[in-house]
Write a structure and sequence with these properties.
Heme Oxygenase, Chain A, 78% helix, globular, binds the ligand Cc1ncc(C[n+]2csc(CCO)c2C)c(N)n1, Haem_Oase-like_multi-hlx
C-alpha cells in the first residue's frame, strides 16, 4: 500500500478536510479575524506538540537513515512554521510566551495527544499514519489554493499562510516525507489487518483536522480580541 491508498480509503473525510469552509474563506480573504487568530494560537500549541511527535519518530526509528529523515521536520516545526505564527500574532501584541501560556482548546488536545498515543503504543509506521494527514493535506491545500483562480492573493490578510504552504520549500519537504512514508507502507498489504488499522489511524487524524478547522470557525462568537 501507499499514501494514496490511505487517502482513497477515507475520501469523504479527506475532501471535507481539504475543502473545509475555513480554507475557502482563507483563500477569499473573507475569514473573520477572531477565527484566524484562534486558529493560529491553537496551531502554535499544536506545532509544539507536533515537534514532540516528530521527535518520537526519531525515538521509534530503527535505522540511522530513518532517524535522520525525521530531523528536518523537527527543525521546520520549531523554526519556520512556528515563527510564522509568532510573527503574525505579534500584530496583536502577543509574544511567544503569551502564546505558550494559552490554554489548549479541546480539539488541540484531542488531535495532538491522539497522534502521540498512536505513535507510543504502535511502531514508526503507526506514528507516520497519524502524522501524514497533516503534511500531505496542507500540501494539497497549498497546491489547490495556488492553482485556483478564485484565490485572492492581493490584499488578502492571510496571504502569508497561503504562500507558506503553497511555496516550493514546503511542497518539496512534503514530497520527500511522503516518499519516505510510501517506502514504509510498501511492505504492508492494504487488505490485511495491519493495513486496516493504519487506515483507521489515518482517517481519525483526518477527522481531527476537520475538527481543528471547525474549532477556528466556532471561535467567531467567542470574541477573543
Ligand atoms: C492543524 C494543523 N495541521 C497541519 C498543519 C501543517 N503542519 C504542521 S506540522 C507539519 C509538518 C512539519 O512541517 C505540517 C505540514 C498545521 N500547521 N496545523
Amino acid at each position: 500500500m501507499n499514501h494514496q491508498d490511505l487517502i482513497n480509503a477515507c475520501r469523504q473525510d479527506w475532501d471535507a478536510y481539504t475543502q473545509h469552509a475555513f480554507v475557502q474563506q482563507l483563500a477569499k480573504g473573507t475569514l473573520a479575524q477572531p477565527c484566524y487568530l484562534h486558529y493560529l494560537k491553537q496551531d502554535f500549541l499544536f506545532l509544539k506538540q507536533y515537534a514532540r511527535a516528530y521527535a518520537l519518530a526519531i525515538y521509534k526509528a530503527h535505522t540511522l537513515a530513518d532517524m535522520r529523515k525525521a530531523l528536518p521536520s523537527v527543525n521546520a516545526l520549531l523554526d519556520s512554521e512556528i515563527s510564522h505564527h509568532v510573527s503574525y500574532c505579534a500584530n496583536w501584541g502577543l509574544t511567544e510566551s503569551d502564546l505558550e501560556a494559552e490554554d489548549e482548546d479541546f480539539g488541540t488536545v484531542a488531535y495532538t495527544r491522539y497522534v502521540l498515543d498512536a505513535g507510543m503504543k504502535g511502531d514508526i509506521v503507526d506514528l507516520y499514519a497519524a502524522l501524514a494527514p497533516c503534511s500531505i493535506g496542507y500540501a494539497e491545500i497549498g497546491r489547490n489554493l495556488s492553482a485556483d483562480e478564485n484565490t485572492q492573493l492581493q490584499g488578502n490578510p492571510f496571504v502569508d499562510w497561503i504562500t507558506l504552504y503553497a511555496g516550493d520549500e514546503f511542497q518539496q519537504s512534503v514530497a520527500q516525507g511522503t516518499a519516505h512514508i510510501d517506502t514504509l507502507l510498501a511492505e504492508i498489504d492494504l487488505d490485511s489487518q495491519r493495513g486496516r488499522n493504519l487506515i483507521t489511524v489515518f482517517r481519525t487524524a483526518t477527522r481531527m483536522e476537520i475538527a481543528f478547522w471547525q474549532q477556528g470557525l466556532d471561535a467567531f462568537s467567542k470574541d477573543e480580541i
